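Backbones bend. Shown next:

***
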Amino acid sequence: MAQMNTSAGKRHEHPLLLKVAHFSGKNPVITESEFNELIEHTFEALEEALDQIDADIDYQMSGSVLTVEFDNDTKLVFSRQPPTRQLWLAARAGGFHFAYDKAVGDWRGTRDGQLFRLFVVDQMKIQGGITFEWR
């Protein structure tokens, strides 16, 4: 006769572990308030850079999402992701996730390590035909 597992009906709870890219060899933990401050600063800096563009683009902030719309009817959508402490970018080229790298003072792509500001400048050119500088 087979033996029944008596723990089958018990609920086992485990903490949620999230994989977040590490860039300095240490486990960089930022608090939610630090994360929100970094996002606010990033969005404000991006809006200031967008204000300097002479081309016809529209952008708007709605809640925790900043949307940039080009005259070719495509969009870049920037959103904060508090659970993972990441900044996400949806573009025609795909979805991209960025974690903050304190060592360089910028967000860094979790897949390829590319810096956020340079990536945004590239995407503006590729997707919207917009050339601008953002450092």
